[in-house]
Amino acid sequence: MAKQIADTTVLANGVKFPWLGLGVWKAKEGNEVENAVKVAIQTGYRSVDTAAVYQNEEGVGKAIKECGVPREELFITTKVWNADQGYESTLKAFETSRKKLGLEYVDLYLVHWPVKGKYKETWKALEKLYKEGWVRAIGVSNFQVHHLKDVIEDCEVKPMVNQVEFHPYLTQKELLAFCKEQYIQLEAWSPLMQGEVVNVTEIQELAKKYGKTPAQIVLRWDLQHGVVTIPKSVKEHRIKENADIFDFELTAEDMAKLDALNKNHRFGPDPDNFDF
């Protein structure tokens, strides 16, 4: 189990993937995203998660260049947006993202949403990028079990990561079990329920019990479920606070308390009913 911020899980292909990363969704291009990434890296984070649609890849790239940590110690994720899905268009979109980031390679490239009738062609493009060494690992985002089975059925390289909405109101038990069985690493977006965790009585009580914040309780819960987590923040004190989750452990009973909060509630779109 993760004991410190530098700890990693190992993906199916042997690549090491940090348990904790910084998400930069909604972080504005320019100073805001650059400062957030630099603060995170100074704090000890080594993983940054962006996407073409976030429109801040250039800022992330600039911060990486200026942060003083060697490129090979960092783990950078970006994603192909829905409008760019399909084989040739994905290859082009990747090149655009890579140039914006100013990187020779990307650590993890994800299919952002399972766009019906397109995601398998998109996946073939990711396999090509992976085989040619442009990306160290490939995966998907917002894929349900049936989408994953569909890709696995005739792929050459299986998805190594599935990044989904995951938090105490949406515990995704079946999906988590399926991913574990297939050696696909589950990763949580919106782990803090878009800030809602601070308003949940059971989470507040656990925060008091452990002398931690509600956010820290939930991020710890992610890790103990074997789920990589990428809380987003642009505030320095929050970025530091979100990383302070390696010095305590939730009991099995308290893990179960959090699991019991599940109501299959999504704060983001439903992958099966999403207007692509």
UniProtKB/TrEMBL annotation:
Substrate binds at residue 112. Residues 20-262 form the NADP-dependent oxidoreductase domain. Pfam families: Aldo_ket_red (PF00248). The active site is at 54 (proton donor). The record marks 79 as: Lowers pKa of active site Tyr. One of its GO terms (molecular function) is oxidoreductase activity, acting on the CH-OH group of donors, NAD or NADP as acceptor. It comes from the Bacteria. Keywords: NADP, Oxidoreductase. Belongs to the aldo/keto reductase family. This is Glyoxal reductase. It comes from Polycladomyces abyssicola.
